Amino acid sequence: EGDDLVCPFHSFAFGPDGTCVRTGYGTPPPRSSLTRLPVHEVNGAVFVWRHHDGREPDWVVPRWHEIGSRPARTAAWEMAGNVQEVIENSVDLG
Predict the structure, then answer these.
(1) Cα separations (Å) of 55 from 9, 12, 58, 59, 77?
(2) What are the domain boundaries of the chain?
(3) What integer pLDDT is reported at residue 94 of this predicted model?
């Protein structure tokens, strides 16, 4: 709504700076705010970067035309590890 981001379920509304500006239930909680994270829109999807130390992204998702197009294929594995390492190295499994 305008410049505000509104949760359709809870009706909380947040201004551009992340501060809760209104709720559907009364006065906004004093500590209710959003954290702004870097967002990258590519290949019809939205990717959000979150680093536990708050660092900025040090890599970007390549566009399909930069990496070529192949038929979709799925597989499932359960593994422990850092999410970035799993994503960056998942192509090595195929």
Answers:
(1) 31, 28, 8, 12, 28
(2) 1-36, 39-93
(3) 46
